[in-house]
Amino acid sequence: MASAFEVGERFLDGIAHLIKQEESFPEELRLELEPYLSKRRGATVSFHTLRKLQRFLQERGFPIHLHELLEDSEIYLPEVPKPSRNPELVARLEKIKAKLANEEYKRITKNVNCQELNRYGTLSDLGKQVRSVKAMVITIFNFLVTVVAAFACTYLGSQYIFTETTARVLCAVIAASVVGLAELYVLVRTMEGEMGEL
């Protein structure tokens, strides 16, 4: 809090002149002001001393006013000493800052996966896709084997009923078509069940 003025040359010259001219200048006030006059540079005069000087100037009716003397002066604001920080508090604040930084880092990186193969998916997604393709290839292979086996069995078995080759081939195609449609029905039902589980 301000309690003094850092007085300028105008104040010091005016007071020095006033002390020399005025014989009735109070001795107590002169003793208070003389150290400032000798110091000159960076002199700080307290508000209490300035109030005494103002009272004296008003009582004597001098044409000089205090505010005129203080025109080139500034209020002196002493530097406030900073209290030392509690080491326990500093350690606690550092711990809280580290915790907040860690939470922020986790929030920023929560959707980043270090196992990512490329921008299209992760290694686990690749494994799922490989298993899915493997299952599809096995299903198609099974479908083809079943249809071909149904055709072959019907063709070979129909030689006991039909003597002509065209009738045997026609009968085998019909049987293979029926078995193929049945396989497709089962395959579609299975795929619907798997899609429902996803």
From TrEMBL:
Keyword Transmembrane helix annotated: yes
Query: Got a GO cellular component term for this one?
Result: endoplasmic reticulum membrane
**Cellular compartment(s):** Endoplasmic reticulum membrane
Q: What are the transmembrane regions?
A: 135-161, 167-188
From what superkingdom does this record's organism come? Eukaryota
List the InterPro entries.
ATPase_Vma12
Q: Which organism is it from?
A: Erpetoichthys calabaricus (Rope fish)
**What keywords tag this UniProt record?**
Endoplasmic reticulum, Membrane, Transmembrane, Transmembrane helix
Membrane topology value: Multi-pass membrane protein
Designated name of the protein: Transmembrane protein 199
Q: Which GO terms describe its biological process?
A: vacuolar proton-transporting V-type ATPase complex assembly
